[in-house]
What does this fold into?
Amino acid sequence: MTATAAPLDLLLLPTWLVPVEPAGVVLKEHGLGIRDGRIAFIGPRAAALKLVANEVRELPGVLLSPGLINAHGHAAMSLFRGMADDLPLMTWLEKHIWPAEAKWVDEAFVRDGTDLAIAEQLKGGITCFSDMYFYPKVASDCVHNSGIRAQIAIPILDFPIPGASTPDEAIRQGVELFGDLKHHPRIKITFGPHAPYTVSDDNLEKIRVIAEELDAAIHMHVHETASEVQQAVEQTGERPLARLGRLGLLGPRFQAVHMTQISEDDLALLVESNTSIVHCPESNLKLASGFCPVERLWQAGVNVAIGTDGAASNNDLDLLGETRTAALLAKAVAGSATALDAHRALRMATLNGARAMGLESEIGSLEVGKAADIVAFDLSGLAQQPIYDPVSQLIYATGRECVKHLWVAGKQLLDDRQLTRMDEQQLTATAIAWGQRISGHHE
It folds into this structure.
């Protein structure tokens, strides 16, 4: 029996199909078939129409792409959206965010905030996100129930945090959660030491050893600001990235978030260790933290993914908008209009994110055998016309409101802009109630 003999669960017939791998390709009038949650067929429309499918969907004016991958964020912080705007990073953290977290963050906060973030991300075309926040078990339950895919990084700091009174307790919880979810089809647990300035060498050593034993990734804020690097050099004579290199943390399983400060030595270390970088341009712009030199990294062969960061410092979880900002900023920073073209920008928001998370064999491109994590962008609107290159139009002229449908592992989670598993009105009401409590209108 040939592989195509069993009927497809779903056949999608868009105007454009952008597989991302191979790079720079746009397939016109092609079909994509899904069976058992995986991509089972990609081919010309005429061949597609000969296949037996339980459901066929014509998608005129639609561009199908791999689901977007948000490679860094703090989902539950969506409940702090806009609470402490227009402040520099350390003031924002120490005077506003940390005190608010100490006061408000509990399991209910994390559950409601994570659900809000998941819904916002699904509506914006995101099929997989990385989360680094307190009560990671609660967040993983939200991911499980919603149908989205995620990497959950266990936050580890040298001081007590909500849900873990010591770093050892946080690590222990992480190991336990890793074991519990080892075979989960959509959740991957990683370790998230917060930043070089909040985690000691001893704790970093512990994390390295455990991550190696479990073959788990490490996700960490690194070189977010110039002052972070400068302080480390003044105190220890060593740049934070060099310290992580010396401690043996860097490597293909290490995800360095932000990296706005990159010296020649840093670049050599990144290239040699095959470390991935997660670029969060809007958060870096808003907090005036600096610019990650994306084009320089890309040309050197470093894998650069993209993240929104949390809604408290962005203020949206809009990866399509983030990708446009990244493409524009890359050109300004490199002083070159050819830096980070639209096709590479889309790759950064899909396959590069998958690679950073060690999921590139599963997601990040539309290829037969991969999981059917797919987003349908409607490019039929007035503001998208005329279309010369649909990928350019997607990156430079399209907002997330054009996201029409979305599937994760073949399950449709967004149908004609409506969430299929989550109650949008309920989520909105819950978020409003939290806002009133936090701002003191209803104690």
